[in-house]
Automatic annotation (TrEMBL):
<dbReference type="InterPro" id="IPR036390">
    <property type="entry name" value="WH_DNA-bd_sf"/>
</dbReference>
<keyword id="KW-0804">Transcription</keyword>
<keyword id="KW-0805">Transcription regulation</keyword>
<dbReference type="InterPro" id="IPR018490">
    <property type="entry name" value="cNMP-bd_dom_sf"/>
</dbReference>
<dbReference type="InterPro" id="IPR036388">
    <property type="entry name" value="WH-like_DNA-bd_sf"/>
</dbReference>
<dbReference type="GO" id="GO:0003700">
    <property type="term" value="F:DNA-binding transcription factor activity"/>
</dbReference>
<dbReference type="InterPro" id="IPR012318">
    <property type="entry name" value="HTH_CRP"/>
</dbReference>
<dbReference type="InterPro" id="IPR050397">
    <property type="entry name" value="Env_Response_Regulators"/>
</dbReference>
<dbReference type="GO" id="GO:0003677">
    <property type="term" value="F:DNA binding"/>
</dbReference>
<dbReference type="InterPro" id="IPR000595">
    <property type="entry name" value="cNMP-bd_dom"/>
</dbReference>
<dbReference type="Pfam" id="PF00027">
    <property type="entry name" value="cNMP_binding"/>
</dbReference>
<dbReference type="GO" id="GO:0005829">
    <property type="term" value="C:cytosol"/>
</dbReference>
<feature type="domain" description="HTH crp-type">
    <location>
        <begin position="140"/>
        <end position="213"/>
    </location>
</feature>
<dbReference type="Pfam" id="PF13545">
    <property type="entry name" value="HTH_Crp_2"/>
</dbReference>
<dbReference type="InterPro" id="IPR014710">
    <property type="entry name" value="RmlC-like_jellyroll"/>
</dbReference>
<feature type="domain" description="Cyclic nucleotide-binding">
    <location>
        <begin position="8"/>
        <end position="93"/>
    </location>
</feature>
<keyword id="KW-0238">DNA-binding</keyword>
Length: 220
């Protein structure tokens, strides 16, 4: 397993990862499975070792809002495990996933102070990211927000090829719309605009970015 940069396990030493594994139980889920449900109350967390998930919530009208995409090394469910409040979001497997479940997470943190400090840094980073996205929603048009999300996916999952950076897109257009705070129609139009400018090429659940710098300029 290679934790993604910035994800929880990437911050830990090999010894700390083994300590975490020692108190965990391995689990697997198939693509499309619901891993955690918004509103549930539980004290366990999940650390991903394979695959990607989406973290989402639903508005009162039933519209899905995608809050984040997490990959290998990601920590899920830590807020509810710490404060005992109901889950604030639903976690769904975008592809087959594996990880280990740790119960009584707070007891583990009490005996591993350094990991607790790293968790604070992780949560702080997520809060900053949430603030940044709120600013984007007010300052950027839909095409700019779509370009920003594609750049984020390219940085995390991109593979350099002869024709550009290929991203195996884990999200459908509906899910990408939920991640950018726009309608599916607006996202389709934004992708068409980016294609017409020669910045990207799209296919079924994949994107090839031909011009990274041009995409960054459009994102700004």
């Amino acid at each position: 397993m290679n934790p993604e940069p910035g994800e929880f396990l990437s911050l830990l030493t090999p010894e700390e990862i083994e300590a975490f594994r020692a108190v965990g139980r391995p689990r697997r889920w198939e693509r499309g499975a619901t891993v955690m449900t918004e509103g549930d109350t539980s004290d366990w967390v999940l650390v991903l070792t394979e695959g990607r998930v989406k973290v989402s919530s639903h508005t009162s009208s039933g519209t899905e809002v995608v809050l984040a995409v997490r990959g290998p090394g990601g920590l899920l469910g830590e807020m509810s495990a710490i404060d005992g409040s109901p889950r604030s979001a639903t976690v769904t497997a975008l592809e087959p996933i594996a990880g280990f479940v740790v119960r009584d997470f707070t007891a583990f943190l009490q005996t591993h102070g350094h990991i607790a400090v790293l968790l604070i840094r992780l949560v702080t980073g997520r809060l900053r990211d949430a603030d940044r996205k709120r600013i984007e929603y007010g300052a950027f048009d839909t095409t700019g927000r779509v370009a920003t999300r594609l750049l984020e996916l390219a940085e995390r999952y991109g593979e350099q090829t002869a024709s550009g950076v290929r991203v195996a897109l884990p999200l459908s257009q509906d899910e990408l719309a939920g991640w950018t705070g726009a309608s599916r129609e607006a996202v389709s139009k934004a992708l068409r605009t980016l294609r017409d400018r020669g910045l990207i090429e799209t296919g079924r659940r994949r994107v090839v970015i031909h011009d990274l710098e041009g995409l960054r300029k459009r994102a700004r």
